[in-house]
Write a structure and sequence with these properties.
Keywords: Exonuclease, Hydrolase, Nuclease. By secondary structure, this protein is an alpha/beta fold. It is 41% helix and 19% strand. The strands form six sheets. Strands 3-2-4-5-6 form a five-stranded parallel β-sheet, with helices on both faces. A five-stranded mixed β-sheet has the order 7-8-9-11-10. Strand 13, helix 17 (452-458) and strand 14 form a beta-alpha-beta unit. Helix 4 packs across helix 12 (280-287), helix 8 (207-216) packs across helix 9 (223-237) and helix 12 packs antiparallel against helix 13.
Length: 767
């Protein structure tokens, strides 16, 4: 039995609909017109930029600046959304003939967003107008500085507006535009709207940039975002930008470009530059027309990303060590801090920790020189990090972001207060289930129903992302051809089948290599998975990408006679398993062994029972299992030799030996043993057992190693001998518990867990 790691939430489970309609309804798309627009995203579905507040004011001022030859500064952000937005607006202004340049603050020396010093420097360099992209909505102080300096400020942003808005000539923000129908544009999406309005025509040439920034910033891929990304992915396939062509080549992206290529390839590399240094190379890459320069910058960015990955791994390991040592303080919300951590990657580290611990996480780097801490937070769906952070805003020097992600700085002596306050809020607002990762399952499918056509039909819902997750399906079956894959054997590959004859669906479970021992033969298994097409050597076939596994059935882990079970079940200890012995002589230095008869008198419930040896009688194990009723059993016992099975005499064997004895009148071990062994091929143990049974029945006497027939014999059946009966029980024990095949043993053990039938009945009907 294996519990699912996530909470499975079945959507539309009882609806009998075509799969495409079911998936759309799961996404609250019910109207026929909405369905048509969702499945066929058209640029005609985009909203008019003029509907957004501040748009016309911004256009008039920008055109005035161009006409008067004023210098315009595009002030961007250092992430993928910010650098694509910066590139887009710079190219727009250049096309319009503006005198312009761009500026991106250094994460490490200036922090996030506009700052007064940067604006003062801009004024000194002769800039008259500043336009922010993907930033600025929280820059109240910087906006005041701009006004004092006589700088006009236009803010374009999409981040959550706070209580006080900056004073600017114009603020272009979808959430501050009541008449604008769509509120979830990325920063690059807002910049695109401004570019469209300024140029007076629809700028198809910027759709590749919009797709990158929108997917990388994890905004919902619905409404306008879906349209922009759908067409932007097509634009990326044939992009003429030398920088993107070079970056695609370095990454290994060919032909079609998917949202996954952005999310796991292009986006992280553009982000990596600003995480480790100034973000200018990322903008330079997107702006350059020189193929050789593009290749050079792309290679540099690729190396920077590799460095970023190494730093993330190191910090994550350090953070986990701190968390494990202070787990009670971070029971509901994790706030972890250390001097020397690179603040540029703390958002990624926080995301990894959220997935591992299923808790909201804030990661901070401590800066002792100014007694401050700075970092990023990521959250679980049930805990709005922005909303809860705003409730304790007084503890921060700076705070901003979204429901699931935030950035902040604070005094070092406020770290404990922030941790305590967030844990208190989480305790008040969250239930235990809220901490378990939610897995929305779109439908239950049969294995036989899956083919390339259904996978291609599902693909019509792409691009997938926030708000439109890749569909997850539920399947039932059993597994075959199970193996661990990957350099560290940390992934699983198997076929999911419904019958032995069926080929089944090839399935891959990343990061689940340790579950290989649970995929026991013919055990019913439930999986939740994405459906994909795997193409290899020109051949296409459907494939499951496993998200979670559930085994809701009694399981036997068969390690009979094996010395390696301890290495396979390293997680087992005295707290989560019962290590049961039937023989008092059995010992262990690793585990606390519990006597079976003790458990029968004082039952201890446990999901896992480890049988370290075998009983003398099947009734002993029957009583134990019916009392404990474990979900799983690990059989790891062995036999010293197999004479019970191979040497158990037949009635004819007893008859022959008795006739031999009556004829010879005596049997001497020293003189006659080898004679019988040569003549009958019997082992010494077999001869000794026959003699012991005869002695128990008083058929013979034994004196000084010499066996002689008893003259006063009372006729008895062999079964009246206790020696014979005990050996018969031991033989039965080994037949059932050791020499049976896997399915026979599992069936018998399961019957003992579920019923109180006698061992004799189980043997008679089970074998």
């Amino acid at each position: 039995m294996l519990k699912n790691r996530m909470k499975w939430n079945f959507l539309n489970h009882d609806r009998d609909l075509p799969i495409i309609d079911q998936l759309l309804e799961n996404r609250q798309i019910n109207d026929s017109i909405d369905k048509e627009q969702f499945l066929n995203p058209s640029l005609d579905h985009l909203n008019n930029p003029e509907m957004m507040d501040g748009m016309n004011i911004a256009k008039v001022r920008i055109e005035e600046a161009i006409e008067n030859g004023e210098s315009i500064l595009v002030f961007g952000d250092y992430d993928a959304d910010g650098v694509t937005a910066t590139t887009l607006l710079v190219e727009t202004l250049n096309e319009l003939g503006a005198m312009c340049d761009y500026y991106i603050p250094n994460r490490f020396t200036e922090g996030y967003g506009p700052n007064p010093n940067a604006f003062k420097e801009a004024k000194q360099q002769g800039f008259d107008l500043i336009i922010t992209v993907d930033t600025g909505i929280a820059a109240v102080e910087s906006a005041s500085t701009a006004k004092e300096l006589g700088l006009d400020l236009i803010i374009t942003d999409h981040h959550e507006p706070q209580e006080e808005l900056p004073e600017a000539l114009a603020i272009i923000h979808p959430k501050l535009s009541p008449e604008y129908p769509f509120n979830e544009l990325a920063g690059v999406g807002v910049a695109f709207k401004l570019a469209h309005h300024l140029l007076g025509y629809f700028p198809h040439q910027f759709l590749d940039l919009v797709a990158i920034g929108t997917v990388a910033d994890l905004v919902p891929l619905l409404g306008e975002n879906r349209v922009l990304v759908h067409h932007g992915l097509q634009g990326l396939k044939t992009t003429k930008r030398q920088g993107l062509k070079a970056l695609k080549e370095v990454i290994g992206i060919k032909d079609d470009v998917t949202e996954q290529d952005i999310g796991f390839g292009i986006g992280p590399r553009l982000n990596a530059v600003g995480r480790l240094q100034a973000a200018y190379p990322a903008v330079e890459l997107l702006l350059t027309d020189d193929p050789s320069e593009a290749q050079k910058i792309a290679s540099e960015i690729h190396l920077i990303n590799q460095e970023r990955q190494e730093i993330v791994t190191a910090i994550t390991q350090e953070a986990e060590t701190i968390i494990e040592a202070n787990i009670e303080k971070m029971k509901r919300v994790i706030v972890v801090a250390k001097e020397g951590w690179n603040e540029g990657v703390l958002g990624i580290v926080a995301s990894k920790l959220v997935r591992h611990y299923q808790r909201p996480v804030i990661c901070l780097t401590i800066k002792p020189e100014d007694q401050k801490a700075k970092g990023s937070g990521r959250s679980i769906p049930a805990f709005d990090l922005f909303e809860n952070g705003m409730e304790i805003k007084h503890l921060f020097l700076q705070f901003g972001g979204h429901a699931q992600a935030a950035g902040m700085s604070l005094e070092i002596d406020q770290i404990d207060a922030v941790r305590d306050s967030l844990n208190k809020l989480a305790k008040e607002k969250l239930s235990d289930d809220d901490y378990k990762e939610q897995l929305d399952i779109d439908a239950t499918l049969s294995i036989s129903s899956v083919d390339l056509n259904i996978v291609e039909t599902i693909q019509k819902l792409a691009p997938f992302g926030m708000g439109n997750p890749k569909p997850i399906f539920h399947f039932k079956g059993t597994t075959k051809s199970v193996k661990q894959i990957g350099a560290n054997k940390n992934h699983l590959k198997f076929d999911l089948i419904t019958s032995k004859e069926e080929q089944g669906i090839s399935s891959v479970a990343f990061g689940m290599g340790d579950l290989v021992k649970y995929l026991t033969p013919e055990t019913p298994i439930d999986v939740s998975a994405n459906l994909e097409i795997n193409e290899w050597n020109g051949m296409k076939k459907s494939q499951l990408m496993i998200k979670d596994i559930l085994i809701d059935d009694f399981q036997l882990f068969d390690f009979r006679g094996s010395k390696f079970w301890k290495s396979e079940f390293k997680e087992l200890n005295d707290d989560n398993a019962l290590f049961v012995r039937f023989q008092p002589s059995t010992t262990s230095e690793l585990f606390s062994l519990i006597d079976a008869d003790q458990l029968n008198e004082q039952p201890i419930q446990s999901k896992m029972v480890v049988l370290v040896d075998m009983p003398n009688d099947l009734s002993e194990i029957s009583t134990l299992l019916n009392t404990i009723q474990p979900q799983n059993i690990l059989a790891c016992y062995s036999v010293g030799d197999d004479h019970f099975l191979n040497s158990f005499p037949t009635r004819d064997d007893f008859k022959w030996f008795y006739g031999f004895l009556m004829k010879r009148k005596r049997y001497s071990k020293d003189q006659d043993r080898k004679l019988i062994q040569q003549h009958k091929g019997w082992k010494e143990e077999k001869i000794e057992f026959i003699i012991n049974v005869f002695y128990d029945l008083k058929f013979v006497t034994i004196f000084n190693g010499v066996v002689q027939p008893n003259q006063d014999v009372i006729k008895k059946d062999l079964t009246e001998s206790n020696v014979y009966q005990n050996r018969l029980k031991e033989r039965e024990v080994q037949e059932v518990l050791y020499y049976s095949n896997y399915n026979e043993l599992k069936k018998w053990l399961k019957s003992q867990v579920e019923h109180s039938s006698s061992s004799e009945e189980e043997i008679a009907h089970g074998f």
